[in-house]
């Protein structure tokens, strides 16, 4: 059937010819760390601890990290064998077929848009908190969404549009900005851990599981999106000097760093004060203020204000690349694939930037995080499963990295994603189901009839 036609792997390789090949394995690692470490650790850690997992949020991040590790082992093989700006979308296309690729491509795009909106809202909270510590009171009407008594979250909108502009000036230039931001962010988190560890009270970890194991699992599903930066590496393939090796190195190195950071931060944060007090968006600076370190809290707030911008950078870079690739394949209108002189998909970039700004300015952050989590889980479960079909379709293809314990790891990756999806709220499933139906309708109305891909011979 035409809806299951697959993309020829050779046609994918022909598009890896960018004039902007300037990214190394270190750049990829920093890009992924920039995408992964952000609101998940700086914002959601406190919120999930307060509402769902208590001190057990450490286990939530551990479970999320284990699932992410399994998925990364699948991504490693696909990235090394199929370097493409389409990331998960292209992996599904060459292994499972067009319909799955379309669902994956738009689902991951929706996930990144909602995730970035969440990041923008989290950035706004730290920005307003930082101004407050300087004695400047930003108007609540302009920093809160209508549901929280405000008019619009203006700082979130400005942050997203600013980073969208930075990306538009070119990969070489924006890469330097991103690397600096990521290093600042990692440094700030290191300061938080180093100072906070000396003020931990073990009594704050009792009870460790106030919401039982179900709370931990629910928390794991909610924070999973905090690990979702895989496509930021995969989609950077056209700009990488040695994609087959560097992509895999970047994936494995960045995930290892992020798992350690998340567990360490959640342990310190829940040790500083009772989990009941952590239902705040600027959790790290709040925790330090409680233990009498207002000056350090100010530094952490400033670093967070700068550092969270890297997540917006990586997410928007990734989403624009995926949409441009889908446009090139005929599944989306040509306008999404239009590049500027710096080889940046400028139209796709600004469309997603504007959408994110609207969501960040007017919608609830926790709700957006849940929606992005279920979309990410659907995509990563599909990609994990696609490794099995990819092996069968291309048994003799040279691979710089092969998923170990095949096919156990791909099956575990798929099952883990389904398990975490099952622990998300019912309302999340209902709304995502509506989104999924809309995606299917657009495929049969437009994508299927305009596809440029022929059957693999």
Automatic annotation (TrEMBL):
TM stretches of this protein: 28-50, 57-78, 90-114, 150-170, 182-202, 208-228, 249-275, 295-318, 344-363, 369-390, 402-421, 427-446
Membrane topology: Multi-pass membrane protein
Keywords assigned: Membrane, Transmembrane, Transmembrane helix, Transport
Cross-referenced Pfam families: AA_permease_2
One GO term describing the cellular component: membrane
Protein name: Amino acid transporter
Organism: Clostridium thermobutyricum
InterPro entries named in the record: AA/rel_permease1
Subcellular location: Membrane
GO MF annotation terms: amino acid transmembrane transporter activity
Top-level taxon of origin: Bacteria
């Amino acid at each position: 059937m035409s809806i299951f036609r697959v993309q020829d792997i050779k046609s994918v390789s022909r598009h890896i010819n960018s004039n902007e090949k300037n990214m190394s394995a270190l750049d990829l690692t920093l890009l992924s760390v920039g995408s992964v470490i952000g609101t998940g650790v700086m914002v959601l850690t406190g919120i999930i601890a307060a509402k769902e997992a208590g001190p057990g949020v450490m286990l939530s991040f551990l479970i999320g990290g284990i699932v992410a590790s399994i998925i990364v082992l699948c991504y490693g093989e696909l990235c090394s064998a199929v370097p493409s700006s389409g990331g998960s979308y292209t992996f599904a296309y060459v292994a499972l077929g067009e319909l799955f690729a379309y669902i994956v491509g738009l689902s991951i795009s929706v996930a990144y848009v909602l995730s970035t909106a969440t990041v923008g809202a989290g950035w706004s909270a730290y920005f307003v908190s930082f101004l407050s510590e300087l004695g400047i009171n930003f108007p609540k009407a302009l920093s809160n969404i209508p549901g929280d008594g405000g008019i619009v979250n203006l700082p979130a909108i400005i942050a997203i549009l600013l980073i969208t502009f930075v990306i538009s000036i070119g990969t070489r230039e924006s890469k330097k900005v991103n690397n600096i931001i990521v290093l600042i962010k990692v440094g700030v988190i290191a300061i938080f851990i180093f100072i906070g560890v000396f003020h931990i009270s073990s009594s704050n970890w009792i009870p460790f599981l106030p919401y039982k194991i179900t709370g931990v699992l629910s928390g794991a599903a909610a924070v999973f999106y905090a690990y979702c930066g895989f496509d930021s590496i995969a989609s950077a393939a056209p700009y990488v000097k040695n994609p087959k090796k560097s992509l895999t190195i970047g994936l494995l190195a960045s995930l290892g760093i992020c798992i350690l950071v998340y567990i360490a931060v959640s342990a310190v944060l829940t040790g500083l004060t009772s989990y009941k007090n952590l239902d705040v968006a600027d959790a790290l600076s709040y925790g330090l203020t409680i233990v009498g370190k207002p000056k350090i809290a100010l530094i952490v707030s400033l670093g967070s204000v700068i550092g969270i911008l890297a997540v917006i950078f990586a997410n928007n870079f990734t989403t624009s690349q995926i949409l441009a690739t889908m446009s090139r394949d005929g599944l989306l209108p040509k306008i999404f694939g239009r590049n500027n002189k710096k080889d940046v998909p400028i139209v796709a970039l600004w469309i997603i930037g504007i959408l994110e700004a609207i969501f960040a300015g007017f919608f609830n952050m926790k709700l957006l995080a849940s929606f992005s989590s279920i979309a990410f889980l659907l995509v990563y479960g599909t990609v994990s499963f696609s490794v099995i079909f990819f092996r069968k379709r291309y048994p003799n293809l040279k691979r710089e990295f092969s998923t170990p314990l095949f096919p156990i790891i791909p099956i575990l990756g798929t099952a883990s994603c389904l398990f975490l999806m099952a622990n998300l709220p019912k309302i999340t499933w209902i709304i995502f189901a509506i989104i999924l139906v809309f995606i299917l309708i657009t495929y049969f109305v437009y994508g299927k009839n305009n596809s440029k891909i022929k059957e693999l011979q």
